[in-house]
Amino acid sequence: MTSIPVFPRTGAQPPGPAENIWLRAVHTNPNHAADYVQRWRRLAAQGQDIHGEARMIDAMLERGSFVIDAGCGTGRTGGYLFDAGHRVIGVDLDETLIAAARTDHPGADWRVGNLAELDLRAADGSRLMADVIVSAGNVMTFLAAAERRPALVAIRAHLSSTSRFVAGFQTHRGWSAEDFIADAERAGMRLQQAFSSWQLAPFTGEDGFLVAVLVRA
After folding, report:
1. Is 3 a member of any domain?
2. What InterPro entries does the record point to (predicted)?
3. Quick one: CA torsion of 206, 212, 116, 26, rounded to 10 degrees?
4. In a domain, 93, yes or no
């Protein structure tokens, strides 16, 4: 287990922006989501490697596992994992991104929803338990302060005793590694491993990037 010093904080909620950063960007520029879709399609068409996160997650899983892509965007990560033989449900609050995911990666289950309200259920009403929940692409740092802890609690509710939650983001975007781990602990999770890249570089705290692997406490 990688050790990151955690300093307990007091207060009603984690630090963070007053408004969800993604929604603020869309409100400022109505074409923001459509431009984002085209950016990733263009990179894929150019042959750029856009699947580093997905390859790491795939290596963690038995074939045919169940993955929740939390903040799935255009389906870049979840779509790769679906093609690799996993069952995937992707959730994102932006309808434009979900529409792109459904077009570009048919077959997986793409749903509009806020991670702070994540509650995925089977037909019999039981909560779905993922083998891995992945949140790539700085999704965690887009959350408003009031959404952060509820999102972590909701994610934890979809973890079994053998599941893992993997979140990767730039730590200079308003949620430090220490604060994120502290908030995850408050939500009922504990850090299992930490890296500074999706290629599993050791975490030093100096690279400005955290890939945290968490399990139920």
Report:
1. no
2. Methyltransf_25, SAM-dependent_MTases_sf
3. 50
4. yes
CA neighbours closer than 13 Å in the CB half-sphere of residue 47: 0
CATH of the domain at 200: 3.40.50.150
* Contact yes or no for 77/129 (Cβ under 8 A): no
Has residue 60 been placed in a domain? yes
Dihedral of alpha carbons 119, 50, 64, 168, sign: negative
- Whether the pLDDT of residue 4 is over 70: the answer is no
Rounded Cα gap, residues 172 and 161, in angstroms: 31
Going by C-beta distance under 8 Å and a sequence separation of 6 or more, which residues neighbour residue 195? Answer: 2, 201, 202, 203, 210, 211, 213
- The model scores a pTM over 0.85: yes
Helices (H), 66-197: 76-83, 95-104, 139-142, 145-157, 177-186
Q: Which residues pair with 167 in a beta bridge?
A: 135, 212
State the first-to-last Cα distance of the chain, in angstroms, to the nearest integer: 14
Q: What is the pLDDT of residues 16-56, one digit of tens each?
A: 999 999 999 999 999 999 999 999 999 999 999 999 999 99
Strand order across the 109-112 sheet? 109-112, 87-92, 66-70, 130-135, 159-170, 209-216, 189-195
* Contact between 7 and 135 (Cβ < 8 Å): no
Distance of alpha carbon 110 from alpha carbon 180, whole angstroms? 26
CA angle 57, 111, 215 (to 5 degrees): 35
State how many domains the chain has.
1
